[in-house]
Please model this.
Amino acid sequence: MSASTQRKQRVLTGYRPTGPMHIGHWFGNVENMLRLQEEHECFYFIADWHMLTTHFDRTAELPGFTRELVLDLLAAGIDPDRVTLYRQSDIKEVAEMTLLLGMITPLGWLERVPTYKERLRDAAERDIANYGLLGYPLLQTVDITIVKGELVPVGEDQVPHLELSREIVRRFNRLYGPVLVEPQPLLSETPLIPGTDGRKMSKSLDNVINVRDDEETVRRAVRTFITDPQKVRRGDPGRPEICPVFTLHRRFSPDILAWTEENCRSGALGCVECKTNLADRIVTYFRDFRERREELEHRPGLVEEILAAGAAKVRPVVEETMKAVRDAMHLS
Amino acid sequence: MSASTQRKQRVLTGYRPTGPMHIGHWFGNVENMLRLQEEHECFYFIADWHMLTTHFDRTAELPGFTRELVLDLLAAGIDPDRVTLYRQSDIKEVAEMTLLLGMITPLGWLERVPTYKERLRDAAERDIANYGLLGYPLLQTVDITIVKGELVPVGEDQVPHLELSREIVRRFNRLYGPVLVEPQPLLSETPLIPGTDGRKMSKSLDNVINVRDDEETVRRAVRTFITDPQKVRRGDPGRPEICPVFTLHRRFSPDILAWTEENCRSGALGCVECKTNLADRIVTYFRDFRERREELEHRPGLVEEILAAGAAKVRPVVEETMKAVRDAMHLS
Model:
């Protein structure tokens, strides 16, 4: 079979609406989603129910975050005519199937998922050891299988989740018949994008540059980045390989990358100038995005339309799966 | 306010379709349901999703069990014009609300429910330590609160479940606003009905008399009942207070109860005759029920009609609750 006539494989990925999109999200998720929509049949969803597993006490922010995420994705180039873009909570069957698959999912399988204990630890000060958090990978399994997702883009740390999904699928099919599709991991590069303090960029660390930040905010944030501590002033030789500013240059500055590395090492390039160069390029990189975003922002009813259309598009797929699941389990 | 104009309180109770109804169910559940429908606004539901918590590997029997349970309840006198009789799985919002309440239900609250560990122990040979089983009291909480149930008939052993429901309701209302109604227990006598071996009548102990058993089956089962081991033959004095046959006489034989006690103690009444007397009365007691049951059995489409009407009746109540829950949580 030639590549052009081969059936496209179905990819499923979700995005939690937990706040403004930052540069780490952009390179960790959005770039991947843009590439995948060229090659596959993609189902992208706003994972608002997942958001509750850790943010159940912050739901007042949810409508705004959802709206902004949809606009961000559209402005970034996610094409709702090409992909199926929908909101998880619009598809109530996801909850029904979660209840059903939960009946055959051993607690031990969920308890051994590494990210579960990590999340508990990361949120030690908050009270999130809830039933829903433990069920997170089960809900993911439903997200995938209810649309018959074949490929799931995952980073290394998400592989155990997907292995769990595959086990649940196998158990279901063994108990009730071959209904569900076993998803495969699509291992994707998740580049480590450093924040201003050199640690992984993360809203909770308050070290982010958001993709919608205006020029002045970007410039201010870039100026606060840590650099090689041995390079105190211009003239001191720097080590680009340990400098978070240089890590970002790799993403944003192909035009001056070799030059930056050379002149940092020699000491000729000072950090102030180097940061200005980076800020210029970040601002330029996101200029088109921000313009489109601004334009979309002012189209009334757009988000509601997009979500309604997405729900209508995914619904027949979901209903087909649910009917097969109910029939196999002898349920109404 | 006079009793006649006082608003009736709303009662909610569910019944798991796990097999033929026996005499223990009849006096433990059905009698109670018959009495409550006279006094309250009752919501009775077929708890088929609950059945999955322990019987997920036996779902092929579910349609038959559901059908038989509906017919049994109708024949027993549950009046679908007076109560709201529906099937849990017809109300998909129950799954949605279970997912939502699960996000705020601490695992510790569920793990400490005594019946959870009991069930695990009772089914030690089977593999039921699943996510859904742990969530059993959460699902019950949704059953109750989604119809704004005010009173829940419970035996002593179910009081911790209801206390958990009340805690979940309080937590929800504290987090999102006063939406859910805190249910109150309606402590109900759950008489211990002994089976043929003297232990509590239970299908899993194979010691039951089913309410639909024909006359010959009833007589055969009654003959196998154990009695006071010190009373070997007629003439030996018996101890009615330790005899399971006499315990059943208390339910079925008001006409000869004093006579039976007296003549058992004196030894004048032999166990064979005593059992014949009991079997006569059990057969008579259920004769009308069995005739109505037989008649209903032959009305095509009856069960489907009843369940469709029940779903239509409960749906507006459920939709009102779900809308309030979603709004309070800022969800779509």
Notes: The mean pLDDT of chain B is 94. The first strand of chain B starts at residue 10 and ends at 15. The longest helix of chain B spans residues 302-329. The radius of gyration of chain B is 22 Å.
